[in-house]
Design a protein that fits this description.
Blueprint (H helix, E strand, L loop, with lengths): L2 H11 L8 H17 L4 H14 L7 H16 L15 E6 L6 H13 L5 E6 L6 H12 L2 E2 L7 H11 L5 E6 L7 H14 L3 E7 L3 H14 L4 E5 L8 H10 L3 E5 L7 E3 L2 H8 L5 H11 L2 H13 L4 H14 L2 H5 L9 H4 L8 H11 L3 H5 L6 H11 L3 H22 L2 H17 L1
Parallel strand pairs: 1-4, 1-5, 2-3, 2-4, 5-6, 6-7
Antiparallel strand pairs: 7-8
């Protein structure tokens, strides 16, 4: 989502080549204004970012590093609020949450994503289907619930208010109840009256508005209307991995005074992240987000795996079995584009990988076929794979020798990267962070 915005920021920085060059600062600020408006950032938000960035240089010398710092600070002040990020719990369980939004925003899928996120926090979650307007909504929620092994409330009632009332009675043994409410193609009084009735009955701890990143300023206006009519406590932005301009993310909190709480960074159910301004700004500036990557990785890896990989990274050793195991772990973490975007210096590659599907990739399938035709010794030491061994593996896996050569070349590149990574301080910091995350989860 932030590809064009991040690229624009890097172009702005290149305008400042020398220190204490006021003309270069003016050019950079002008370029920054164009970048923000081009990316659909609200004009008042743009004005505030420019003013704060410029004010920084009243007491600090002009230079590329200081401009980067000034821009980061101004973005931080725009994105930050005094309210909560992520999920908060009521003092007395269960914590009830209303999911609201227009039809097509991804509300039902986001409800399941949120349930999976909470399940990862060892919370018992009940999904409640109160969207009886869209015929497939209840079936969709049940299917999603089954796929993540989260309970979905089953009711024979045809009235959303009755479904919510029944769910409250059986939901006392759950930590969190997520009510997936109906949407419309446009805001109308009937929708607002229905939501207001459910709100009065459920007395939710949080009301999330699910906004489509592609909706731009229309999404901000809709969120503002929901806030006025119903009162929302947070926004979940979906399709964050899309080709949208990104302005809605920079504008929505500033314009309506409600924090972004989560972002959907891909189509898969694990692709939901807590929105933390400093981490988003880090990605925008091309510095990645190692902290979030460590948290996601820690959630899918056992203590033993973390320790084993720590040892292997320090030694620079990496086997084909490790290669396959990490591909499986990556699939659990989320989409490739979201993962690459967290790695410092690789943010520009995210858009190229957004459509990469590790489940259905031909390359990954070929690598797995190859590995299944190898001996244990060959998997642990691919350097012994001479011509005759490669022919045998090709025959056993139904591939060509050229496919085997290409797959081994890809593995070799991954092994070299792991070895190179092991020599960087960032790698040890990342693995240390993983260990800390595992300790916190105990």
């Amino acid at each position: 989502m932030f590809d064009t915005l991040g690229s624009g920021f890097r172009t702005v920085l290149n305008k400042i080549r020398f220190s204490d060059d006021s003309k270069a600062l003016d050019k950079a600020l002008d370029e920054l204004k164009k970048t923000l408006l081009k990316n659909d950032v609200y004009h008042k938000t743009t004005k505030e970012i420019l003013a704060q960035t410029k004010d920084y240089f009243k007491t600090n010398p002009i230079g590329k590093e200081n401009f980067l710092k000034a821009l980061s600070l101004s973005l931080e002040s725009i994105l930050k609020t005094n309210l909560n990020y992520g999920f908060s719990y009521s003092s007395v369980p269960p914590t009830c949450v209303l999911m609201t939004g227009l039809q097509g925003s991804g509300k039902t899928t986001t409800s399941a994503k949120l349930a999976l996120y909470l399940k990862g926090k060892n919370k018992k979650v009940l999904l409640v289907p109160c969207d009886l307007q869209r015929l497939a909504a209840v079936t969709q929620l049940k299917t999603l619930g089954e796929s993540i092994e989260v309970d979905v409330f089953d009711s024979q009632s045809t009235k959303p208010l009755e479904v919510a009332k029944e769910a409250l009675k059986v939901g006392k043994n759950y930590d969190v109840l997520i009510f997936d409410t109906a949407g419309r193609l446009a805001i109308d009084e009937a929708l607002m009256d229905e939501l207001d009735s459910i709100k009065k009955l459920v007395k939710p701890h949080d009301i999330f508005y699910v906004a489509d990143s592609l909706s731009g300023q229309d999404g901000v206006r809709s969120a503002s209307t929901f806030n006025e009519k119903i009162g929302i406590s947070g926004v979940i932005l979906t399709k964050f991995d899309s080709d949208s301009k990104g302005g809605i993310a920079l504008s929505i909190a500033y314009q309506i005074g409600v924090p972004l709480r989560f972002i959907g960074v891909g189509e898969k159910l694990p692709d939901l992240e807590v929105f933390l301004p400093d981490r988003i700004i880090s990605r925008l500036m091309g510095a990645g987000d190692i902290q979030t990557l460590a948290e996601k990785t820690a959630s899918v890896m056992s203590d033993k795996e973390v320790k084993d990989i720590q040892k292997k990274i320090k030694k620079g050793s990496f086997t084909i079995e490790d290669f396959i195991a990490q591909i499986e772990n990556v699939k659990k973490i989320g989409s490739m584009s979201s993962i690459v975007g967290m790695i410092p210096g690789l943010g520009n590659m995210a858009s190229n990988l957004k459509n990469m599907d590790l489940d259905n990739s031909e390359e990954i399938k070929n690598i797995k076929c190859m590995v299944n035709s190898m001996t244990k010794k060959e998997r642990l030491d691919p350097s012994i794979l001479n011509g005759s061994r490669r022919k045998r593996i090709a025959k056993g896996s139904g591939l060509e020798v050229s496919d085997i050569n290409r797959a081994l070349k890809q593995f070799d590149m991954a092994a070299k990267m792991a070895k190179q990574f092991s020599g960087k301080k960032g790698a040890s910091d990342f693995m240390s962070m993983l260990g800390q995350m595992k300790a916190q989860r105990r």
